[in-house]
Amino acid sequence: MKRTDKTCPREFFSVSEHVSYLEPVQIRHLEKAFTDWKGVAKRANSVLARERMWLIFVLLRHTGARLGEVLSLDDTEAFDKSGPLVRLGGGDRVREVPLAEDFYSEVMDILESPMGCGLRGSFFHVDPGYFRRICYARGKECGLPKELVGPNALRNTRAIEMLRAGVPITIVKDILGQSSLDLTAHFQQFSREDIRSIVDSAHQAMRQRTSARNSFIGHVLQITFDAVMAEVVLETRSGIRVCAVITAESLRNLKITEGTPVIATVKAPLVNVIKSLHTPVGSARNRFSARVMRVTGATVISEILGQLPDGTEVCALVSTHRADSLALQPGETVEFWFKSLSVVLNTVQLWD
Prior knowledge:
This protein is α+β, with helices and mostly antiparallel strands. The protein has helices at residues 24-39, 44-63, 67-71, 101-111, 114-117, 128-142, 151-164, 169-176, 181-185, 192-209, 248-253, 320-326, and strands at residues 2-3, 85-88, 95-98, 214-225, 229-236, 241-247, 261-266, 272-275, 286-296, 301-307, 313-319, 333-338, 344-347. The protein has two domains: 17-185, hpI Integrase, Chain A; 194-347, CATH 2.40.50.100. A hairpin with a 5-residue loop joins β10 (301-307) and β11. Mean pLDDT is 84; it is low at 1-12. Residues 209-275, 281-347 form the Mop domain.
């Protein structure tokens, strides 16, 4: 038994219903509302006021910072001249958050403009209540409720964007300035359907890497073990059950329990084929009725490809002499069988 490479969930996870955040279309509408509102200002004092509100909004939107962190920024020190980043937090908890280069350039252009120079050091120092009211007004223009357009919802939105883009949860934690993974993990939850999708992805990736032609994806249904060996039965989504025998040590080390998602693989030379009315010689815990799709013959070895009722393909490599004696035709029903000891179990890991 072995572990597969870790699989990034990306967009497979669900978000708790208790977390307020914006979907991509909603955040685009809110961004446009802020940009349009800023663009219609005419008087100099109005242009300056709206530029400040807009810049606070986009900083929250792109950094996932807390409102208090942005409003307390000293803009003469927060932005690094040598690179596109902003320093957030204070004391021994200062963190550097990367910014997109085009956005960073836009920020610096505003701060270094004649309009921004008069407020250097205090450009972001505005009343938090006033900023919230501006957010609510822009949200109302988009048909969004208050709980979706406040600073906390913007912070949540940025966190979820990063997680869905495949950013590890530990990095998201650092960018948000959170002290514990527990605080970040509530953004990322996995339903039964999510887990199936993730395992499906791992299954496809694994099939591209392994030499095994036969693979079955499922969850562990039953485990029987003694001091030396363990029998593991997995069940696929369509109800196919595959039995594997592994060492008890492997079972303990990999923490396989009932319900664990696994992938079972069997190399084609370890699979045999018999006519449906025949009885296999020896022990064969795994027997599956299948329809012959094709038989590819060669001088020494022949390949027999079949399809189970649920669409799963199975493959056996047998001697050409054996294949000739079977005289199989496409569409004929046969049984593919293999021993439990021939099954290799692969665990599936998710990386956060």
